[in-house]
Write a structure and sequence with these properties.
The complex is a heterodimer of chains A (383) and B (423). With 383 residues, chain A is an alpha+beta fold. Chain A has two domains: 39 residues; 246 residues, MetI-like (MetI-like fold, Orthogonal Bundle), CATH 1.10.3720. A four-stranded antiparallel β-sheet of chain A has the order 1-2-3-8. In chain A, strands 4-5 form a two-stranded antiparallel ribbon. Chain A is globular and about 80 Å long. Chain B is mainly alpha-helical and 423 residues long. Chain B is built from 15 helices and no strands. In chain B, helix 2 crosses helix 4, helix 5 crosses helix 14 and helix 8 runs antiparallel to helix 14. Chain B is 71% helix and 0% strand. Chain B folds into two domains: 110 residues, no CATH class; 228 residues, Orthogonal Bundle (MetI-like fold), CATH 1.10.3720.10. The chains are: A alpha+beta (383), B mainly alpha (423). Chains A and B meet through helix 1, helix 3, helix 4, helix 10 and helix 11 of A and helix 3, helix 4, helix 9, helix 10 and helix 13 of B.
Chain lengths: 383, 423
């Protein structure tokens, strides 16, 4: 009996404590909102937002609703995270491998790269790129082309846009490629397990990726045009680029800072993963008669990935959360558009901040859930 | 690349190859160096693309000549083993050396030779390089924010006292050493809090009151991160114990708390503290913005701290728990006297890393209008008298933060190595 009370009493006290805090807050919030004449509710989401956003992936103007503004912000956040994740992975893998190089210079330059970018606050890096480095770029009329058709100017980076005809056929062909690669690789695996035959899956897949989509150009009536940015004079002194896609400098600064900063952490994950594979594994594989390529593909990588992927996903998650720093340089991400402008206009502090936090929280929890599932799947099953 | 190996040295002509290789290699370096330092293109008589790639080709051939399995000459073997193992490595080596040579003159001349530091106004900056005058003039603002100039000694004194008190624990007499943990976890934070509060904000003991709005610069970064650290540590400890508790309600509440704060970005937490939190407080209750920010960061960082401490708790062998229980210790006795002292020692490097992350995160308080270093930079950059020196300011701030964070990360790395060997 005594034992039972000992177990239940602390729980009751904790729950009451937590409920008490929540109750206290709700009570105060009720009074405060009554005093200021604000009512709680999410009805504002359907109202007209009447503010403009500089850069959006979907069609948006002031006449759209707040919910649409939220979507614009969310998509911008996802866009900047997605681009940064790609770049930080590439950089991270390169520098992580370079840190293990036998070459003294390469090893140490990679180490200094990691130490340098890891130890400067991200916000300062974003500010540096945005306010200092990108401001040194030329104005549109003086910008020379990069790679012939792209222009890096103080107003942003202008790249050609794609103008597709019959895009859907092209996408179907991509889908067909993916499906056929999956089928082929399962079949090849079966073949190897049953008969010991090896099929060059990689080259077949590579061939498919190039051949099938190319076929649609010749047969399917798909064609691709490029909208090349052209300099246009607005008035005597002001020039702009028209046509093509203009990436705003905020986006470039963010991508640069986020990917350089996060790549240092990814590099450390990659290094730890590769170092985590014992020398004996490679020697054992070599003594069975595998070639160096096979050792890398069949023995080292599967084990190293098991160590690398979980912490790297964590870094991706951090990157996505860090992309909220965009608000500091006025890149229209979720925080700036929704928790900034929309909040100023509606004054619905509690609702808007909660929605914003819940959005990030659900992204995090979703990725964490996928990670847990993946970890379960790849963990070494000991019998 | 076997075809490239037709010119390989053998025993007879080894020295010819060595000298020829060194000669070619030094010519390639010399070419790049002259090109970079004196801005003279020695090879301009060659067609364009060849003139660019000539040093690379020469250096590559040179390194290829030098490369041998084993020569018996110590320095040569070290070079071959470290930077010249194969053709690919040789090219990368050359590229890195060239990049360093190419980057040195412009950065040196920008930062030192063409830079200005004299004078007090923008007009003093006449050179083409950096204008360190800007940093010099604004230095006190970058360090202390809007804090009155003649009162800066108070901030300095407070920091010196806090650091001195931190080292005080090392000089305790042996019979008092058992209270060390008590001192660092409870007494030290309280004293430090009182020292900083009374010295920096003043208002009593004959000191002039300085409102928190005037605090700023790097000192604010330290104040915020220091307070957050000392407050988030106990919070993290409670949460970590809660997460490992056998009582389901307590465990779920702790898990919910930790996962919630770890799932949201700090910037939304700061937004919450500045716009949402005042709504949750009683009507006529005013809370300073700095205090709200510190509370928000503490709540946020407490979750991370909890995970670090949980790692320490999990790292302890089960035998420790069993042994404590078999001595008849209850939950609290077991944790206070057996588990926590060992676990906390294990997590010191982790806490160090948390603190590092905290210091790197504090510039974010700029978005809610507190002017710490990044905020002061933004303020100085838009000052009409000092337009156009953003670069110098950010480089200055980056150097300061880099030194602090690098020192801390090295320290935590050393601690980690030390504790690893001790166990």
């Amino acid at each position: 009996m005594n034992n039972k009370i000992k177990k239940i009493l602390p729980q009751i006290i904790t729950v009451l404590f937590v409920l008490g805090i929540f109750g206290f807050f709700t009570f105060n919030a009720q009074i405060n909102m009554d005093n200021r004449g604000i009512d709680f509710g999410f009805g504002f989401l359907t109202q007209e937002s009447s503010f403009d956003v500089q850069f959006s992936l979907i069609e948006y103007s002031g006449s759209h609703s707040y919910a649409r503004a939220y979507l614009v912000g969310l998509l911008n956040t996802l866009l900047v995270s997605f681009i940064s994740i790609i770049f930080c992975t590439i950089l991270g893998v390169i520098f992580g491998v370079a840190r293990l190089s036998s070459n003294y210079l390469i090893r140490n330059s990679a180490a200094w790269y990691v130490e340098f970018f890891r130890n400067i606050p991200l916000l300062l890096q974003i500010f540096f790129w945005y306010y200092a480095a990108l401001r040194a770029l030329p104005v549109p009329e003086k910008a020379g082309p990069w790679f012939g058709v792209t222009y890096m100017t103080i107003k942003g980076y202008y790249i050609p846009s794609f103008i597709w005809t019959n895009l859907d056929i092209f996408l179907y062909s991509i889908l067909a490629v993916i499906v056929s690669i999956i089928i082929i690789s399962t079949y090849a695996k079966k073949l190897q397990e049953n008969e010991g035959k090896q099929t060059p899956v990689f080259f077949i897949s590579l061939g498919l990726i190039f051949v099938l989509p190319a076929l649609t150009f010749f047969i399917g009536g798909v064609s691709l045009d490029f909208g090349i940015p052209v300099l246009k004079q607005l008035s005597k002194t002001s020039y702009v680029f028209e046509g093509g896609i203009g990436l705003p400098p905020e986006l470039i600064a963010l991508v640069l800072a986020l990917s350089l900063y996060t790549s240092t952490f990814v590099a450390e994950c990659v290094r730890a993963g590769i170092q985590g594979i014992g020398k004996g594994q490679k020697e054992a594989a070599a003594s069975v008669g595998l070639t160096p390529n096979q050792i890398l593909k069949l023995v080292v990588m599967p084990q190293a990935l098991r160590i690398i992927i979980p912490p790297t996903t964590n870094q991706y998650l951090n990157l996505t959360k860090n992309s909220s720093l965009a608000a500091a340089i006025a890149y229209p991400d979720l925080v700036l558009v929704f928790a900034g402008t929309a909040l100023m206009q509606t004054g619905k502090a509690i609702e808007i901040v909660s929605i914003t936090m819940l959005t990030y929280l659900s992204i995090s929890l979703a990725i964490a859930a996928i990670m847990n599932w993946y970890n379960k799947k790849i963990e070494i099953k000991e019998k | 690349m076997n075809s490239l190996n037709f010119l390989k040295s053998n025993k007879q002509n080894f020295y010819y190859f060595l000298y020829l290789g060194l000669f070619l290699f030094s010519i390639s370096i010399l070419d790049v160096a002259i090109n970079s330092f004196l801005k003279i293109n020695v090879t301009s008589f060659l067609p364009g693309i060849l003139s660019i790639f000539l040093p690379l080709i020469l250096g590559f051939v040179g390194l290829n000549f030098i490369r041998t399995e084993y020569s018996g000459i110590k320095s040569l073997d070290i070079v071959n083993k470290n930077i010249n193992t194969n053709n690919f490595n040789a090219i990368l080596t050359l590229l890195i050396i060239f990049a360093i040579i190419k980057a040195t003159p412009p950065s040196l001349s920008w930062m030192i030779f063409d830079a200005n530091i004299s004078g007090d106004t923008k007009e003093a900056c006449t050179g083409t390089g950096a204008c360190w005058t800007y940093v010099k003039v604004w230095f006190r603002r970058f360090m202390y924010g809007m804090y009155p100039n003649d009162l800066h000694w108070r901030i300095n004194l407070a920091f010196i006292l806090v650091i001195a008190l931190g080292f005080f624990g090392f000089f305790l007499r042996d019979n008092l050493k058992k209270y060390l943990a008590l001192y660092y976890v409870i007494i030290y934070p309280i004293i430090a809090f009182l020292v900083i509060y009374y010295l920096i904000s003043g208002g009593s003991f004959g000191l002039v009151w300085v409102e928190t709005g005037a605090w700023g610069g790097l000192s604010l970064t330290f104040i915020v991160s220091f307070f957050c650290l000392i407050f988030c540590f106990p919070l993290g400890m409670v949460l970590a114990l809660g997460r490992r508790s056998s009582l389901p309600m307590i465990r779920y509440i702790s898990i919910g708390y930790i996962e919630f704060w770890r799932g949201v970005p700090l910037i939304t937490v700061l937004f919450m503290s500045s716009v949402m939190f005042p709504m949750f407080l009683p009507e006529d209750f005013f809370m300073d913005k700095l205090v709200r920010v510190i509370i928000a960061i503490t709540l946020f960082e407490g979750a991370y701290c909890a995970e670090v401490i949980r790692g320490g708790l999990q790292a302890l062998p089960r035998g420790q728990y069993d042994a404590a229980k078999s001595l008849g210790m209850g939950y609290w006795k077991m944790h206070i006297f057996v588990i926590l002292p060992q676990a906390l020692k294990l997590v010191i490097p982790g806490i160090c890393n948390t603190f590092l992350a905290l210091v790197k995160d504090t510039p974010l308080i700029f978005v809610v209008g507190l002017a710490e270093l990044a905020g002061m930079l933004a303020l100085a950059k838009t000052n009409p008298k000092w337009l156009g020196f953003a670069m110098e300011g950010y480089i200055f701030a980056a150097i300061i933060f880099w030194i602090i964070c690098y020192a801390m990360s090295k320290y935590s790395y050393n601690l980690e190595a030390k504790y690893k060997t001790e166990r």
